[in-house]
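ok so for the tutorial part 2 we go from a plain amino acid sequence to predicted structure tokens. step 1 is just haveing the sequence, like this:
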Amino acid sequence: MRKYNFSLSGVILLTGLIVGGCTGAGGNDQGTEYAPNMYHSVAYEPLIQITDESAGMWVNSSENPAVGEYYSSNPNNPYGMNMREPVANTVRRGDFIPYRIPKDSFELAERILSNPFDSTAAVVKSGKELYLKFCLHCHGIDGQTPGKVGERFAGVVSYTSAAVINKGEGHLFHVITFGKGRMGPHASQLSVKERWEIVRYVQILQQQ
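step 2 — the prediction. this is what the tokens look like for a chain of 208 residues:
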């Protein structure tokens, strides 16, 4: 049988290592970690830079040891943002509340919805351009005489007909969004803003 000789100092040292390795971690102090910045990521606020040079110093692995890992201030950025400038024509999230009116609630949409865009030259111009791309083929150039597709598939309603002429802008927007009759929904092709612009232009066609 093999015999092992343990000295008292060795036992004390071993016990100290075991106890020391099992205690001390907790809260913000999780003990010794390898690559701690991989375990404790900090979510950046994209519109605000972190100007505190000591931020993240405890997990610092940057090339510049004078500042912390999470320091992100750029003195050459006059806007103080972490993010780059948005792509042109990007619609900022939150500009429009998600459209939650049920599909068949045309009367509700007509009653509570109103166009947030005035009939400015820019809105009308954009509405006309969108109309010529998405509506012309069925409703025709003037909204009264059917286009090429409208000639082939009967049932396209004239904008000046009794069924449409007195409908409010909320009704028109809801029809563009969900479709009605033979008309399919266009919410996947047109943004909320674009749909309202088309509504403005359709109202102009109704007055001609």
